[in-house]
Amino acid sequence: MEAIILAGGKGTRLKSLVSDRPKPLADVNGQPFLSLLMSFLAHQGCKHFVLATGYQRDMIRSKYAGDYLGIPISYSEETTPLGTGGAVVNAYKKLKNNNPFLVLNGDTFFPINIALLEKKFTETRSDVTIALFKTNEGGRYGAAKHDNQGLIKLTTGRANAGESANGGIFMIEPTIVDLIRNMNLPCSFESGFLPVVARLGGRITGMTFNEAFTDIGLPHDYLCFCEKMSSQQLSANKNIWCKEITNRRAAI
Known about the structure:
Oligomer: single chain
Number of helices: 7
Order of helices and strands: EEEHEHEEHEEHEEEEHHEEH
Shape: globular
Helix content: 25-40%
């Protein structure tokens, strides 16, 4: 599996807390957010990262160089903004094989089971399958309405509370990118790339997951995510410590 991570945003809304680095490198309890995202993908079997960078791209390349956790990294660097749709088309050239690949937003965290998304993608013979979540905030996230078969009805509207929303993880059939690589740029992935796929007769499906979705783009959400990850780490460390004590007692 290969993954394109969209890491070119400026993070304007987060400037009050993260002003000295690009948003994907925002510090989360001592490590960059992008490291958490790549660690999540590494544990799900990802074998190659393509970082689609733009704003302060040299800082991201300097941080990771050619690999992370032994997994190779390629860079798709923008000198002029291409939009998220253009970034995917540009980064696609850096993939190493012609298998279905992942696209993820570099400022959201949605720890789903990628194998289930891939199963949905394969069983429905999709060109794009989108990971969805149920939002509790009306008007913030892009709506992703789907029928009983999971087919997505594209809309520019925003999801109401309790409705399915776009979770920022996509599995894509590479042949569809070959068909649309000459589209006008810059363009958004959601409002440019996906509508072109639909017009060409592409099959776009969605699958709803129960895992918590986090967008670190707003200061409040970023701080809450840091607090949540800190609590999880403390809990993990406590479990490790308890296990070590149990093992020592058993050895006495």
